[in-house]
Every structure is written in C-alpha cells, then in structure tokens.
Amino acid sequence: MRIAIGSIQCEGNSLTPVKTKYSDFDYAKGEAMYKKIQVVDFFRDYNCEIVPTIYAHALPGGAVIKEDFLRLAGELVDAIPASGIDGIWLYLHGALYAEDIASGDTYILKEIRKKVGYDIPISVAMDFHADNTDEIVTLANCITGFRTAPHCDHKDTQIRAAKSLIYCIEKGILPKPQIARANVVICGDAVQTSQEPLKSLMLLADNMERNIPGMLSVQVFNGQPWIDEPYMGPNFVVTHESCTKKAQECANILAQKFYEIRHDFKFEVETAEPEDAIRMAMESNTQVFISDSGDNTTAGASGDNAYMLNRVKKLDAENVLIAGICDSCAVDKCYEADLGDTLALTIGGGLDKNSESAEICGTLIHRGDILSYTGGNEGPSATLDCGKFTVVITKNRAAMCRPDIFESIDLDYKKFKMVIVKLGYLFPELASAAPRAILAFTPGSSCERLQDMNMKNIRRPMFPLEDNFI
Ligand SMILES: [Zn+2]
Questions:
Q1: What is the pTM of this model?
Q2: Same-domain check for residues 370 and 406
Q3: Which pLDDT score is estimated for 374?
Q4: Which of 15, 143, 420, 428 could disulfide-link to 445, CB 3.0 to 4.6 Å?
C-alpha cells in the first residue's frame, strides 16, 4: 500500500487582528516530517510505502495570511502524487482560519480532491476544538479527533485515523461521514472530558463506536469559539462504513444531548472580574495564578495587552509577576541597554488596537531567549524588576504555560505572591504547581464569554446568547 501523509495546523482566532505568517510555522518537509508525527511506525508495520509531504504547525493565532496559507497548502498538495497512491492520511487542526478563505482545512481537502479525485480514501485526525464545515464531511472519508481536553491523546488519535484508512483501503470502501451541530458555545475549562457533564457524553460516543457494527468513528468536537463564522461551535461527526442513515442518527443524538446538558457546564477553576481577581489574590494566604483569559496566546490572542498590569498598578498590588507581555520594540530597547540599567518604557498595545499599553520603570534583571510552548525557541525576552511588580517582555507572542518556560529565562515564579499569565485554564504542568488559580474575565480576542465576543456571523439562536430555542 502506498500512503501519502501531511499535516498543517494552526488553531485560528478570527477576532484578533494579528495575522499568522509562513515563518510562524514549525515546518518540516519530506522525510524530516517523520519526527513530527506518530504514525510512521504504524504504517511501516503494515508494510506501507509512505509518501511524505509537509508538516507545518503554528502557535494558535489570527488568520493565516492568504498568500502564506496558499503557499503551505500548495506545498502539501504538490507533494501528493496525482495517481499511484492508495490513500491519504492527514493530521489537521480543524480550526485553521485563513484570510479570505475561512476554513483552511476545508480548502486543503478540496485542493487534494481536485488532484486525486474521489476514488481513494482520505482519513483525517483532528483536534477536539475543530470547527468543521458541512463541506468537509463530503471531502474526507473518515474524520476522527482527540477525545481528551486538556489534550493528552495526540498519538492515539493519529493512529485511529491511520487504522481507519487501512481498513477502508483493505475493504475497498469510501465511507461518507455525517455531521450534526449543537447551537451551544461553552468555553475554556468548563469543557473538560474527564468532568461531567461532558464525561457521560464522551462515554456515549465511545459506546456507539464500539458497539454499533460497522461504525468507524463517533467523534465529539467542541469547536473553537473564537471564529466568527456560521460553522463555529460543537459538531458531531460520525463515520459508518456503509450506512449514512445510522451515522446521521448517532450524530443527531449527540448534538441533542449536548444541547440538553448546556446548563450543566461549569468552570472548574475559580472565576472573577479582573479587579476582583487581583483583590482576591492580594488577600489570599497562598500564591495565586491569575489567567488574563481575554489575551490568551494559546487561544490565538495577541498577548500584547497591558490591561492587567494597569489594574495591578491602580490597586497598588505588591509582589506580582506579569508573565508576560509581547512588545518587540521594548525588547529591542532592553537589548540596547545593560543589565542593571534602569529603564522607563511604554509596553503593550502594539499589536491589537484594543490592547492597552502601560508605562513602566524598572531595573533590567534578565535578557535571553524564551522557550516556546512546543519546546522550540520563541526568541528574545527581557525581565524588568519594577519594585512592586516584575514583568517579562517578549519579542514574539509567547505562552508561559509550563514551569520549564519560566526556568528558560531564569525566573523563579514561586517567589511571587501573584502570577498573571496569558492563558485560559492553566496547562496541567502549571496547574499542579499553582496553589490557587483564578480565571479573570478580561477583555480581548480570546474572552471566555460569548456575550463579550461581539460575534456577527455565527449561527443564531446560539446558547448562551439565546436559550430554550428547541
Ligand atoms: Zn484543542
């Protein structure tokens, strides 16, 4: 068997003006992509000949610039032979947002079909936060995705998609996945697969997949909420090897159940309005991590908003670490100065016109490259001790979501009473190190409440903007 494989991923956010560009992608071409994906051994065990294309993965961000996206998609499609292959395996995010195109994932599949036709199977592995279009289920033969949020089944998902592909090739079938939707938007840590009410729904999907004969995949996708398009939101994609009626029935049941449990989703983490969160941390006996959730870089936001820094100054909070704020010019100024110098800087507000800037004055205590959230290099950073607070400034958008990222810039976050991070829910490694965590409902392009997002193009009615519409 000859299998073409490819992967392009970027979780999109259509609300931020900061575009994602070609150079933002961690990129590997040809056999170099084998190190980035986890199905190579599986396919080799089946004596498959693998035809590599490209792997490109970027930090969640705004729309991918049209020509940059077309270049990436073109590289992937060009590397797929027009004939002489038995199947195609893809690993996509499912919420890639491309400028003037919207769903980049749908575009990629369409271009592949134009080239190879509809007679060979395509199997796709996706993120749990995929916003699938109606069209995508007409282009792929099997669609599966992560079954965990926070995600810890990347490999399983890739393998499941590979198994389905082999199954389709061996049986000579071209299944047609079916989709159903729930008009319900639930954000952040309220949607965890190990917690109710989602836990039971995941179990139901699992039972359908295991127990219904001929079922290839029963998949719950929560969608990514920060995409202002009609296809945004929870979607349920079911692939049966031959019976589209059965697949549609199962998808409909899951969508209906998701609607029924909409009131049962609750934030696991403590939540508060921004200034209340700071006051709660000031009064707390233990260290507190505060998520500046509206400017969450892991959800695609710009990461340049000094909103919380300004509130920390206003409330005169002490012993605070602001981790961090993206400001390329301010970092350049820090690299022109000497360690130990006192610098007066304006930071933030350079990327998103809705972001605030802040005036700070402090001692430059550290400079150096910061680790990226995928383990690579996110570029230069500077740390300033401003007396009552310390602030990390990064040249590029960064996500300080794990202890090793703080360590990469010699920063001991444990010594601060309050640590303000640009995240939604804390990543597991940080959550286990945080005595207490509060999610602050800050404004921004990754805000956690649909009513704060000012969406114009999503389907309506949509819970929680409307309720009791079924
Ligand atoms: Zn995700």
A1: 0.92
A2: yes
A3: 76
A4: 15
